[in-house]
Amino acid sequence: MTPADLSLTVLRAVRRAVDDGALRVDVPSRVKIERARPGGAGEYASSIALALARPAGRSALDVAGILEERLRGVPGLRAVEITGPGFLNFTLRSDTDADLVREILAAGTSYGHGTALAGTVVRLAGATEARAALVAETLVRLLRSQGAGVEVGSGDGERVHVHPGAPGGHGTDAVRWAFLRAAPHDRPLDPGPLLVPHERNPLFRVQYAHSRTRRLLVNARQLGFTPEPGRLDGLDQPREPGRPGHPRHHAAPLLGALRDHPLVLLAAARHRAPDRVARHLEAVADALLAFQHAVLPLGDEKPSAAHRSRLALAEAAGTVLAGGLSVLGISAPDRI
User: Fold this and answer.
1) Which 3 state secondary structure label does DSSP give 90?
2) Strand partners, 81
3) pTM assigned to the model
């Protein structure tokens, strides 16, 4: 993780704190990261908590604690410490991109599931209206993915335990996306355009992005190589004159979206907001579709360790897309 990556990571933590209602401030355009001063803790430091304290109406130590909670366990950070009046200090891990990809591939579609809500029992009101019933069914999966117990009320007020079955019990993928992509207080989307296979169709982009990851794996096998997590640097290097090559593609947006996935699932469960998952899947899909062209060799290139690493990242992205779609009860086709 570079200082620029760390800056974006802390900025995302501020944005999540604002989205969660823990902080009421304008999200800054950037977060300044500096080398830790002699005698300080960690490798890098930020005074963002001090800068946000006054507009938030909180002490800098309170703000630092809120941000530290949202930075805890982020891949790439070995430790986050609060020092002095509210400075955040960071110790980084090495080879974190490969670690993230390994973690996702090891967890499979359960990546992002956890126990943050263990011991919590959430009671959802029973519903008969189609959208409300679909949202409730999805919330059961979301809450259980974070370790919460769930009870759903029957029509006569009796509380009953619900064990959601396989996705797909409430109609087509388009109807599900139309109901779940809109925020609970907004009108559902028109499912008609979601049936059209076009890049302006967000559901199509998400499902197509998943299918692309499966096709990249097939194509790579035909070229004689398989995915292997490793270093992902060199993607922004210009091609050599006179040689075929890839345009500049950065892995950072895709890696950032994959790192955010566990936090998005937890926030969606806490706020009973499956639309957050749908929006996040769009971000993962768009980042993957921009990155995909750097995965396979071009021209007379031979498959290298770099290609194996990029293929592993693409496979991890497909895994996250499949897992997120499953939470929403939507299919993740291998081919479109």
Assistant:
1) strand
2) 89
3) 0.71
